[in-house]
Backbone:
């Protein structure tokens, strides 16, 4: 499937990803709503435990994104056998990564949480939630691999279908296992984690079933197993490792942010947990279109049509801003109603959240530009550049948070302004790269040899 970067293609690729991401965000929303009815300690612990789990997943997704770039390029070159070969190499890397992280997580999470958290209650509940989540880690990572495959070939419908089914299963099991309904034992926060783990397994099985049903196994020569080549693994590692570190820095800085917030008290942590859930939900159009930009740029590059890349990328930026603004406007016009979903019986927390909510609307607006541009640059194979950008953004972000929390003891809405700084710095870097570097010449004259002859 060779792409041109039209608005129709952008929406065709992005819409299923957006739909699936909304479903995934509803997953997070339901967990937070249920935990909000259990207690604010459990709400904060779910957030911390979930962030620690997602830190492991997001590093694995660095391999997935690297695989997606290579698969999209091979798709643009009209090489289906090469696509299938890359897919198997990606799954092998994810299996190796799982075996290492699962073992470390099983035995080390309580010790790590004891080091980074202060409240004994938060430590205990975070560990309970985290330990119940890691049983779904294998399915989560493999599903990410399938996500990279289907995004790379531009067939994104199944991503939304799998996610919606997973969310429906999770909602049912959350209600059953957290509160002890439908004959299940009442498990509280542990039930929330186990429900999500089971749902992740179901989502993975949907991916496998679709792969078989659409006969992609034959189309892309996925079976029999290809000969695994060290050169292909090396290439995928070289492209992906900067992304793994990039994602680790990005989410790691957010984890540190919440660890510092925890020192401000349980109320501040609960408010920030709510804001994080809203932030992720409203950011879905931008993050989904970032994946679209990644696939689009790599596909066009694979066709050798370098002159079309800039135009296609800026089209994605326009779509991202317009879709994001619709949701941001909802936050601006109805802040109390949005927050009331999470905090229906806590008027004081709700009032204290509004100022911070307005701050994240500014951050989300800037993000609708910057995340698209950075992922487009990543689609060009410039993963080392994107890693450097992420490190710089994270350093300034954490410096601001440490100063506002530990030195100046600022109110929460000031601390959340770190998000504005983060996305603004990223935007400046990306515009500089696209406007003032010779990236087109690099592609035309083969400077990016890393991804030229993968299989």
Residues:
């Amino acid at each position: 499937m060779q792409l041109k970067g039209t608005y129709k293609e952008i929406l065709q690729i992005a819409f299923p990803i957006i739909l699936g991401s909304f479903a995934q965000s509803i997953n997070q929303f339901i967990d937070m709503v249920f935990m909000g009815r259990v207690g604010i300690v459990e709400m904060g612990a779910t957030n911390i435990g979930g962030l620690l789990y997602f830190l492991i997943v997001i590093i694995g997704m660095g391999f997935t994104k690297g695989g997606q770039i290579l698969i999209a390029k091979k798709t643009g070159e009209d090489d289906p056998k090469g696509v299938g070969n890359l897919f198997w190499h990606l799954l092998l890397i994810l299996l190796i990564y799982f075996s290492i992280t699962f073992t470390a997580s099983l035995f080390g999470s309580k010790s790590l949480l004891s080091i980074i958290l202060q409240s004994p209650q938060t430590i205990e509940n975070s560990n309970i939630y985290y330990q119940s989540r890691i049983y779904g880690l294998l399915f989560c990572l493999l599903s990410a691999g399938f996500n990279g495959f289907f995004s790379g070939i531009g067939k994104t419908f199944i991503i939304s279908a799998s996610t919606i089914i997973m969310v429906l299963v999770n909602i049912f099991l959350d209600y059953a296992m957290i509160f002890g309904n439908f004959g299940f034992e009442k498990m509280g926060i542990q039930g929330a984690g186990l429900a999500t783990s089971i749902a992740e397994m179901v989502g993975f099985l949907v991916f496998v079933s679709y792969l078989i049903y659409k006969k992609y196994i034959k189309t892309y020569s996925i079976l029999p197993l290809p000969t695994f080549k060290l050169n292909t693994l090396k290439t995928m590692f070289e492209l992906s490792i900067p992304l793994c570190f990039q994602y680790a820095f990005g989410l790691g800085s957010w984890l540190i942010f919440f660890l510092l917030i925890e020192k401000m008290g349980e109320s501040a942590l609960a408010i920030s947990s709510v804001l994080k859930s809203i932030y992720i939900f409203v950011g879905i159009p931008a993050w989904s279109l970032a994946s679209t930009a990644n696939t689009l740029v790599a596909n066009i590059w694979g066709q050798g049509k370098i002159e079309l890349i800039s135009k296609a990328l800026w089209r994605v930026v326009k779509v991202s801003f317009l879709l994001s603004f619709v949701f941001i406007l909802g936050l601006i016009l109805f802040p109390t109603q949005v927050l009331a979903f999470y905090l229906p019986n806590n008027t004081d927390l709700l009032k204290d959240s509004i100022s911070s909510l307005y701050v994240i609307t500014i951050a989300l607006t800037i993000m609708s530009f910057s995340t698209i541009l950075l992922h487009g640059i990543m689609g060009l194979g410039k993963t080392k550049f994107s890693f450097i950008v992420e490190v710089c953004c994270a350093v300034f972000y954490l410096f601001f948070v440490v100063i506002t929390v530990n030195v100046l003891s600022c109110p929460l809405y000031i601390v959340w302004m770190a998000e504005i700084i983060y996305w603004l710095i990223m935007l400046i870097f990306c515009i500089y790269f696209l406007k003032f570097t010779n990236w087109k010449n690099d592609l035309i004259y083969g400077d990016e040899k890393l991804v030229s002859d993968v299989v």
